[in-house]
Amino acid sequence: MTIFRDKHLKGYLLFIIVYSALMIGVVICFCQSQVSVTKSMYLEHDTAVVSSLLEQGVSEEIIATAISNTTTDKDGIELLSKIGISANTLSSLLPFLSQFQSHTFRILLTGTMVLIFLLCAGTLFFLWVRNRLYLQAQNIVGCYINGDYFNHLSQNSEGEIYRLFSSVEQLATMLQSKTEAECKTKEFLKNTISDISHQLKTPLAALTMYQEIIESEPDNAETVKEFSKKIDTALKRIEQLIQSMLKITRLDTGNISFEKKLCRVSEVIKTALNELTTRAQNEDKQIVIEGNLEQSIWCDMDWTSEAVGNLVKNALDHTMAGGIIRISWENTPNMLRLCISDNGSGIAPEDIHHIFKRFYRSKHSLDTQGIGLGLPLAKSIVEGQDGLVSVQSTLHEGTTFTLSFLTKP
């Protein structure tokens, strides 16, 4: 039974057992004492009777016969009745019996008071220890209510009360995690809004400037055409920025549910390159695909294609004309590794650990396209599907991103 695992209850039960044994011992001692007192009283009474008879001149033979006699008759009862000794005689009128009664009462009263005191003392001590535990738990729960999770409930023993404490601790841990998650969410939203605001300043300022130039030279068709294109580029940049930030925000806050299924790698690559092959041709860059077209991965087709597309865009951004972007994949017993490599400018050693941060732009790539959200978005998409992203790069030689996916659920 779980009740016997509680340290305090076990102590109290042990006290009750010892107390019961003590009571039995007291009763035995009391009975032995009463037998001894009764024997002493009986001998004292017989001695007094014998002494009185001897004084009256009664022979020793008659006294001995009378003392050892165990039978009663009517004459004896009537004689005792005449001198006032019967079953109805008050105990106080019988000296020896009165003394015995007084002695017995004193012993019983003293023993009972001692036993009651011990029982009350043991019970009060148990209740005091238990109440102290409850007060400690109440104070700690009060701290939990006020958001202070530094102290913890006692869980150094077994029993129902400690199981309850354990459940309260689990609840407190959940509340703490929820509070921390809410704080992180608020901080995340604050940083996201700050990032969007900061990143929108430049294109919005450019749009304002372009608009002023167009308004100042309305008759110059070439100027209007040139800055209209710049306005279009800036608007696309703003749209791309907002869409990327919204996607990252939804991924980080867990508002996106990936619909994973078994997809062919070739289909994922095809969807990812839908709009990038034309750009590669226009920029005189080559995209090479190598791998078993029948191999499959467990993923969300649309989101995974976007992640792969972002990595290919990054490769195109950092590869000069005539460069090669290579997409290959290979199977392992449980994983499929998809590699996207290029022979472009590579990543500097001081930048390799920061490339997945939002809006991070290396000083070596300030003149390239992009807004610094493609890599963080790709990483969030892959890791959101229980995948992994790793990168290897050598400056001025090229970069390889490796995506690892499960091949089965």
Low-confidence stretches: none
Q: Give the N-to-C terminal Cα separation.
A: 43 Å
Mean pLDDT: 81
The percent range for strand residues is 5-15%
Q: Describe the biggest sheet?
A: 5 strands, mixed
Rounded to an integer, what's the Rg over CA atoms? 50 Å
Under CATH, the homologous superfamily of the largest domain reads: Histidine kinase-like ATPase, C-terminal domain
- Gross CATH architecture of the largest domain: 2-Layer Sandwich
Order of helices and strands: HHHHHHEHHEEHEEHEE
Number of helices: 10
Class derived from helix and strand content: alpha+beta
Please report the first level of CATH classification, the CATH class of the largest domain: Alpha Beta
EC number: 2.7.13.3
GO molecular function: phosphoprotein phosphatase activity; phosphorelay sensor kinase activity
Enzyme class: transferase
InterPro entries: BphY/WalK/GraS-like (IPR050351), HATPase_C_sf (IPR036890), HATPase_dom (IPR003594), His_kinase_dom (IPR005467), HisK_dim/P_dom (IPR003661), HisK_dim/P_sf (IPR036097), Sig_transdc_His_kin-like_C (IPR004358)
Description:
- The chain is α+β, with helices and mostly antiparallel strands.
- It has three domains: 2-145, no CATH class; 182-252, Helix Hairpins; 261-406, Histidine kinase-like ATPase, C-terminal domain (Heat Shock Protein 90), CATH 3.30.565.10.
- The protein is 61% helix and 11% strand.
- The chain has helices at residues 7-55, 60-68, 74-82, 95-145, 160-216, 221-252, 265-272, 276-282, 301-317, 374-384, and strands spanning 261-264, 286-290, 296-299, 324-331, 335-342, 388-394, 398-406.
- The strands form two sheets. It has a five-stranded mixed beta sheet with strand order 2-4-5-7-6, covered by helices on one side. A two-stranded antiparallel sheet has the order 1-3.
- A hairpin with a 3-residue loop joins strand 6 and strand 7.
- Helix 1 (7-55) runs antiparallel to helix 4 (95-145).
